[in-house]
């Protein structure tokens, strides 16, 4: 019995060591991407991730330290709503860069952002789609975000109680509009 307990403790110790090593490696990778993406999303500034509350990474908490351009270094909770959204998006995309997926769904992530930050978000999703081949499905009401998309899907209600799903390929629609308008301009 004593021997079995010792083997179990040894196995648990081995798993904990391996877990710590893997967590620290992934944490460093996510932090590196987060720092770069934060600076890109804010057009400057700096940020980093920190493990807090314990020296053991398996028991530590996560703290996000951010310094947008022209501000003091602070924690996420002290930033404005738009700054929190951009910082959170930087972290989500940093994790995503470590393990990209074929599809990424973003639901109203642009809602707290002003137009300049929506432009940055759209540029980032476009670049990430090109780098990784990921398809981004963005649920939005923001016209600027919609203008950057390749295809739009929407729901309309032409008569009360009857919904209809519409799909528009923006590149085809733009091409159609240009060829339809061009003869009338000459």
UniProtKB/TrEMBL annotation:
Any single GO CC term annotated in Swiss-Prot or TrEMBL for this entry: cytoplasm
Biological process annotations from GO: chromosome condensation; chromosome segregation
Pfam families hit by this protein: SMC_N
GO molecular function terms attached to this record: ATP binding; DNA binding
Subcellular location: Cytoplasm
Primary subcellular site in the record, as a coarse category: cytoplasm
Record-annotated RecF/RecN/SMC N-terminal domain positions: 77-163
Keywords: ATP-binding, Chromosome partition, Coiled coil, Cytoplasm, DNA condensation, DNA-binding, Nucleotide-binding
Name of this protein: Chromosome segregation protein SMC
